[in-house]
C-alpha cells in the first residue's frame, strides 16, 4: 500500500492519513475484514508519530470505517459503515460547508455538477484499479 503524507500541507497529518486509508479501501488495497498495519509499524514506515497514527485509526473507528479489537484495527463491513449515525452527521456537515462555499462563490449548478461528475469518475477509477487485476 502506498500512503503519501505531505508534511508541509495545511491539512493535518492525521486527516491526510485518514483519507489515504479510505482511498486504500476504495482501491481495494484492503478488503472488508482485512487488518491494517499496527500503529507502531505504520508510524515507523511513514516517519510520523505513533500518536498521529493512533488518532487517525481511532477517528476512523469512530466513523465506523475501522473496527478495533485485541489484535488491532480491521476494515469494517460496508453495512456497519453505512449504519453509523455519527458518520452521517459528519458527512452532512461537510456537505453543508461545500454548499455554503458554492453559494458564496456563486458557482452555478452546471459547473458544480460537472465537478461532482469529474470527482465521481476519478473515484470510480480508483475503486476499480485493482478489481481488474
TrEMBL record:
InterPro entries: Tscrpt_reg_HTH_GntR (IPR000524), WH-like_DNA-bd_sf (IPR036388), WH_DNA-bd_sf (IPR036390). The keyword Nuclease does not apply. Signal peptide: none annotated. The keyword tRNA processing does not apply. One of its GO terms (molecular function) is DNA-binding transcription factor activity. Keywords: DNA-binding, Transcription, Transcription regulation. Transmembrane segments: none annotated. Residues 11-78 form the HTH gntR-type domain. This is GntR family transcriptional regulator.
Amino acid at each position: 500500500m502506498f500512503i503519501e503524507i505531505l508534511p508541509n500541507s495545511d491539512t493535518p497529518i492525521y486527516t491526510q492519513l485518514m483519507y489515504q486509508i479510505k482511498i486504500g479501501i476504495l482501491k481495494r488495497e484492503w478488503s472488508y475484514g482485512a487488518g491494517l498495519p499496527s500503529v507502531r509499524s505504520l508510524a515507523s514506515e511513514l516517519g510520523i508519530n505513533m500518536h498521529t497514527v493512533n488518532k487517525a485509526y481511532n477517528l476512523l473507528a469512530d466513523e465506523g470505517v475501522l473496527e478495533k479489537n485485541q489484535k488491532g484495527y480491521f476494515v469494517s463491513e460496508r453495512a456497519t459503515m453505512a449504519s453509523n449515525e455519527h458518520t452521517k452527521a459528519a458527512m452532512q456537515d461537510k456537505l453543508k460547508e461545500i454548499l455554503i462555499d458554492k453559494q458564496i462563490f456563486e458557482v452555478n449548478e452546471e459547473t458544480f455538477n460537472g465537478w461532482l461528475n469529474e470527482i465521481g469518475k476519478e473515484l470510480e477509477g480508483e475503486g476499480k484499479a485493482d478489481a481488474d487485476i
